[in-house]
Specification:
It is built from eleven helices and no strands. With 278 residues, it is mainly alpha-helical. α4 (70-89) packs antiparallel against α7, α7 (118-143) packs across α8 (152-180) and α10 (218-244) runs antiparallel to α11 (251-275).
Amino acid sequence: MSFQDTIKTGFGHFQETMSWYPDSLITFTEEFPQLQTMNDSIQGTFLHPLVNGSLPTEITPLLRVSSPHDWLTNMLLLQMAFIVVLWFVMPNRRNLFQQIKQSFKSQSDIAHQKSGFLFPFFFYLNYLAVVILFVYVAIQTIIQPHIIDESQTYLIVVTSFIFVGYSLYKLVFIVLAGFLFKTRDLAFQQIRFYIDIDNMTGFLALSILILFLATQSNYFFYFFIFIILIANAIKWFQTIVIGKSNSTFSLYHLIIYLCTLEIIPLLLLIKFIENQRF
């Protein structure tokens, strides 16, 4: 047998095999009609190349959905860039942590420090902005998860007004208490310490808030709250230390002072935010 005859014979067997395949498939489906019903129900989803042929498959690209907090993340990144620029142009940045360390000591130790007003002021604005934006995000995602987009401006304005008013209340209260009890030096020492701690908290909290918005991880959310609680606990403890340096104040008076300055206004603020319907 020649090579051509071999090819023809093999091709003939192949044709017989392929002609047998559809007949056997039809016989199989007639004996098991439930398989044919199943095939009809999923034919639009699963296409076998031997039965349905090679058909084109439509691929739908998965587009990234814009997050409602994208503008907030971009603004915080610009804020961080501004803080970095301030850090590099600040003339006494190497002494910043030393000044914060000195603020834990007595007033006589920090009275000779000569630090500018402009840079601490901008750093404190950073702290206010970070906390305000965090409260805004917390209200939008936890307290009021179904806030519509049109209320975002109103929400952030109200949040800013409340928190700035709360900060000004503490400042005025400390100054008035120092004036009434003739402890102005201790009052200004407390204000200086509060500002130093808030500035440090603002640096750390800014990064945590950006990570939270980028990852939407609850770990960063609760870590932010933990940082704020630790910072406030340090401020309250140092307030007691400053007050104890004056023999006219007892521990009972200092606790009443802290409740009036920090705890009661904070509880009222939380209650007010919870009762809001933005």
